[in-house]
């Protein structure tokens, strides 16, 4: 149950946690494999495109103040569309939560816990997620805000320390394998900027509607910068290593840093912050899953659905055998599903704006309540 409205900084951190986890889960590797030296140029173009898409979403939401995409769907076509859109979003959040949890457990197992059962590792995350959601969304937001700041500081610190290993000449040729084909490949990878999925839902949580529009644009710009820095950092150090399917390459970058003969394994520090960011990300996803389920079913208690969805996520990670299976599902199924959901959401906003112009009503805004 929300006791206060979300603030600007918490909203930006809420969206930023997405790109932090996408970086952890191997997005820079995917971009570098497809684009080589043109990765930086393509990330900038995709970032500009993402800002334009977010600007469009902001503009379309101006006629639906304090409403989310479910409220807009109900205004457009009634409750059946609201329920359908809610189900699409629930499946999207469940899917990425399963993939994310499975991946981080596989990574932890391969680095530190070879003899541990994957399900046992996942159980620690699930218990924490349940506790966090039982405490409340406000606590998750405040914790996420601090985790994003700490992880960002560690990320910048890591890039600065590894800068002595940089070979800037690897930035050339500027267009790598060519821009035309790679640009389309990365535009289909727009789900990297999947803050759009949160943007479609968080408007009712703002006290000041102007902060909603500002936070969306600021967060998207920061997403682009974050992703650009991670791609360039990896490109300048080991462009050939990123083709590996083993573990996330940002972690490998951290292992190359040695502060002194007494402080060498700094990668463990980075891994700790990345595990915390994954935990925060999963807690937010589970909150939105239960929030959407409550909204489409008009239920008053989310405790039962919280336990049920967490059990589904925990059991489903057994379907993903290894990291290679994770990449296959992410790039062949989930990526296009997210693009489909976001595209449908934008189409619903467009049609609802057209209907609003033809059939004015006194108010379509609704205060979201859990």
**Major sheet, described briefly?**
none
Overall radius of gyration? 21 Å
Shape: globular
Poorly predicted parts: 177-181, 241-245, 361-370
User: How many extended strands?
Assistant: 0
Structural class, by secondary structure, is mainly alpha
Helix content: over 70%
Give the helix tally: 14
**H-E string:** HHHHHHHHHHHHHH
CA-CA gap between termini:
6 Å
Oligomer: single chain
Range of strand content: under 5%
What average pLDDT do the residues reach? 78
Structure description:
It is a single chain. This protein has 370 residues and is mostly helical. The chain is built from 14 helices and no strands.
Concise synopsis of the structure shown:
It is globular, with a radius of gyration of 21 Å. By secondary structure, the chain is mainly alpha-helical. It contains 14 helices and no strands.
Keywords, please?
370 residues, mainly alpha, disordered C terminus
SSE topology sketch:
Elements lengths: L7 H17 L2 H9 L3 H23 L7 H9 L1 H33 L6 H18 L1 H26 L16 H9 L7 H8 L6 H29 L11 H7 L11 H31 L5 H14 L6 H36 L12
């Amino acid at each position: 149950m929300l006791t206060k409205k979300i603030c600007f900084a918490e909203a930006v951190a809420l969206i930023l946690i997405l790109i932090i986890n996408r970086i952890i889960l191997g997005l820079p590797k995917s971009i570098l494999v497809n684009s080589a030296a043109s990765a930086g140029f393509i990330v900038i173009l995709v970032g500009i495109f993402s800002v334009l898409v977010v600007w469009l979403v902001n503009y379309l939401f101006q006629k639906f103040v304090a409403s989310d995409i479910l409220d807009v769907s109900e205004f457009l076509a009634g409750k059946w569309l609201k329920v359908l859109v809610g189900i699409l979003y629930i499946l999207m959040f469940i899917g990425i939560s399963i993939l994310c949890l499975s991946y981080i457990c596989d990574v932890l197992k391969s680095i530190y816990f070879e003899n541990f059962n994957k399900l046992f590792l996942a159980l620690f995350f699930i218990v924490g997620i349940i506790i966090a959601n039982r405490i409340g969304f406000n606590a998750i937001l405040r914790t996420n805000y601090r985790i994003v700041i700490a992880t960002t500081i560690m990320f910048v610190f890591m890039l600065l320390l590894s800068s002595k290993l940089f070979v800037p000449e690897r930035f050339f040729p500027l267009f790598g394998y060519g821009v035309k084909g790679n640009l389309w490949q990365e535009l289909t990878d727009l789900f990297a900027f999947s803050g759009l999925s949160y943007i479609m839902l968080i408007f009712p949580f703002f006290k000041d509607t102007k902060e909603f529009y500002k936070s969306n644009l600021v967060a998207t710009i920061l997403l682009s910068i974050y992703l650009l820095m991670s791609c360039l950092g990896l490109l300048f150090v080991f462009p050939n290593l990123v083709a590996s399917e083993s573990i996330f390459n940002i972690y490998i970058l951290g292992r190359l840093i040695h502060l002194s003969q007494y402080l060498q394994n700094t990668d463990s520090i980075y891994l700790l912050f990345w595990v915390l960011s994954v935990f925060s990300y999963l807690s937010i996803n589970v909150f939105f899953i239960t929030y959407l389920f409550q909204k489409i079913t008009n239920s008053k208690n989310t405790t039962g659905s919280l336990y049920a969805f967490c059990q589904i996520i925990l059991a489903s990670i057994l379907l993903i055998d290894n990291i290679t299976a994770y990449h296959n599902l992410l790039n062949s199924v989930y990526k296009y599903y997210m693009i489909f959901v976001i595209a449908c959401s934008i189409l619903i906003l467009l049609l609802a704006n057209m209907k609003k112009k033809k059939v004015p009503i006194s108010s379509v805004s609704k205060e979201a309540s859990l």
